[in-house]
Amino acid sequence: MLELVEVQSGYGNKLAIKGISLEVKEGEIITLIGANGAGKSTTLMTICGVTPCRSGKILFQDREIQGLPADEIVRLGICQVPEGRHIFPQLTVKENLDMGAFLRTDREGVKRDMDYIFTLFPILAERRYQDGGNLSGGEQQMLAMSRALMARPRMLLLDEPSMGLAPLVIRQIFEIIRQINEESNTTIFLVEQNANQALHIADRGYVMENGRITLAGAAGELLDNKDIQKAYLGI
Amino acid sequence: MDYFIELLFSGLTRGSIYALIALGYTMVYGIIGLINFAHGEIYMIGAFTAFIVATVLSIYGFPLLAIVIIAGLAAVVWASSYGYTVEKIAYKPLRHAPRLSPLISAIGMSIFLQNYVLLSQTSDFLPFPALIPDFAFMEPVAHIVGSTDLAILVTTVVVMLILTLLIKFSKLGKAMRATSQDRTMATLVGINVNRVISATFIVGSSLAAIGGLLIASHIGQINFYIGFLAGIKAFTAAVLGGIGSIPGAVLGSLILGLTESFATGYVTSDYEDVFAFTLLVLILIFKPSGLLGKAANQKV
Lengths: 235, 300
Hints:
The complex is a heterodimer. Chain A is 40% helix and 28% strand. Chain A contains 10 helices and 10 strands. In chain A, helix 3 runs parallel beside helix 6 (137-149). Chain A is an alpha/beta fold. The longest helix of chain A has 18 residues, at 167-184. Chain A has one domain: 3-Layer(aba) Sandwich (Rossmann fold). Chain B has helices at residues 2-32, 39-59, 64-91, 100-120, 147-169, 171-181, 183-188, 193-219, 226-241, 246-267, 272-286; strands at 126-127, 221-222. By secondary structure, chain B is mostly helical. Chain B is 74% helix and 1% strand. The interface between A and B is medium-sized, with 33 and 23 residues.
């Protein structure tokens, strides 16, 4: 569904990703794990067209999308929940969700999806007229994911959804990710430092170091891999 | 008491005009973090356009109401096309440059537009036609509140209401707010940020053009330099109220207008600007981000 071929990208005159290739198949959950500064977030921003792709190809449903403006890429069905959640702080919860559906024109469908999200996350329904900036970290993460879902993405890119959250909330968030994947068959590209949790829900995984993919394989294999256990799982 | 009311209304009138211009500063600042120093010039171009159109139409003997409407529309369209073009030429190429570069570019644009009008029109003061008639129903209070004052106040209030509705409820308004709060995220939900920025310049320029038309018919004369002082004052008002905040710009403008009016009326008119800027300094000492300026309230 999504394929990166020898993609390079970066900021200024420094390359943050130095020619990576990876593939995500429809309906999969794949995860990209790695340390701070490995280039994981840049990879997502490059897919979304926010950070320009310097060379290589990005194919989405067999169509080259590198160089398309970011809003066109969203229109194709790729949505990102960026690191740090990026809630619009002075928009209400409901307005934040409306923004997620910015490109949609089917009012009825938007309303139905919003109702669905409110049943999925009753806390958001309760706070729908509060400013997004006043929610707790976990609530903001739920809102950020819901906002992305409002666009009815075919592929959801999640950047560190567990960052800064309590263990119980993290488990809840991962449960929701699995649910989104199963119920609406949304393909999921998960970037995580929390390698253990990520590999447990993912089908396959990639390991990134210093802007390069150093290892790839089925999630179970990676979990059993001695090097990974030492470097990322703390076993 | 009459004198007090007179000063009050003249202050509110001034404040309204400042507000119409200050909104352009504050909206642009809110979205791209730039002080658009060429904004005063857009206001001046609005006044000139209204002047030219109104003069031509009155030669052909159009009724006054038609002149006001057509001249107003022409000023809005012409000034916003300038605002739009200035952004495309002078700011957009510098979107990712260090913050100082677009600022210098803005000052350059301001000087360029002043001189452009100076050369293509004239350096003289031009008599602006009285577009707002003396309303008959205002006669009993005409010695305190002029018809132009009333017209300016009413127009400003209506324009503000429309703007508020636009920003609060329309899709464009929501996109503007989202873009000003988090531009990267706005891109990620599919907002075409460039289009939102252009729209902001168009809205701001339209408001300035309306301000230009109103003030010109109030004062009765214009020249190429009127944008400079009005721009500085409106910018002051925007900073006073908290730059980036729309209600702040309106509040700051009204406070500035009233201060100037009362200081001129009760103390002396020689130091009008001194009072204005003293007020600015005082407020910024105690509230550095302005009266309604955003103190970031986002939880991380």
